[in-house]
């Protein structure tokens, strides 16, 4: 009976150790989670002139960066919610090229008219891939954007990125 209890305890200890090791390996060695903001502004008539800044809102492996953008809008659709029309862009892909690497993110943005030529959008975003300091980054977050029919726009995203 004592041998059976000792064996059961040994099996439980081994299982607990295996679970602990597996959980630590899944997070990856040296993985850090960092809160960031990605803010940009530009003019619709000249998308290549858009400027972006990666700002650090918490400690982690990433460094602040300044970037330029290329993007692909994809399709859009209109929906009516409680009498308000929204334009939804479910798959905007932006490639932000900075001094420290390239970050590719996918956005889902829902725009509503705000009057007097203003449009307001709320978004979710997710990292697709990257190079340089962004090579092993995952994560995403939420944000907002405003643009005018006359061309200028501004955007801000905040979220959590994990670096491995």
Q: How is this structure best described in words?
A:
It is globular and about 50 Å long. It has an 8-stranded antiparallel β-barrel with strand order 1-2-3-5-6-7-8-9. The longest helix has 26 residues, at 2-27. By secondary structure, it is α+β, with helices and mostly antiparallel strands. The protein has one helix at residues 2-27, and strands at 32-43, 51-56, 65-72, 77-81, 84-98, 101-115, 118-130, 137-148, 152-163.
Number of strands: 9
- Which outline best applies? globular
Largest sheet: 8 strands, antiparallel, barrel
Order of helices and strands: HEEEEEEEEE
The fraction of residues assigned to DSSP E strands is over 45%
End-to-end Cα distance, whole Å, is: 47 Å
- Look at the helices and sheets and give the structural class: alpha+beta
Number of helices: 1
Q: Give unreliable regions as ranges.
A: 3-27
List the topology elements.
Elements: H1 2-27, E1 32-43, E2 51-56, E3 65-72, E4 77-81, E5 84-98, E6 101-115, E7 118-130, E8 137-148, E9 152-163
Antiparallel strand pairs: 1-2, 1-9, 2-3, 3-5, 4-5, 5-6, 6-7, 7-8, 8-9
């Amino acid at each position: 009976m004592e041998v059976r209890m000792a064996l059961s305890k040994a099996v439980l200890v081994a299982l607990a150790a295996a679970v602990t090791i597996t959980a630590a390996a899944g997070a990856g060695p040296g993985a850090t989670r960092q809160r960031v903001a990605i803010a940009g502004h530009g003019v619709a008539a000249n998308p290549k002139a858009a400027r972006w800044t990666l700002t650090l809102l918490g400690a982690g492996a990433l460094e602040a960066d300044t970037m330029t953008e290329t993007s692909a809008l994809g399709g859009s659709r209109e929906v009516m919610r409680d009498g308000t029309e929204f334009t939804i862009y479910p798959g905007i892909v932006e490639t932000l090229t900075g001094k420290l690497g390239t970050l590719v993110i996918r956005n889902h943005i829902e725009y509503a008219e705000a009057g007097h030529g203003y449009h307001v959008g709320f978004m979710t975003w997710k990292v697709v891939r990257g190079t340089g300091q962004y090579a092993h980054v995952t994560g995403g977050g939420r944000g907002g954007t405003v643009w005018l029919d006359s061309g200028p726009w501004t955007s801000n995203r905040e979220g959590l990125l994990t670096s491995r």
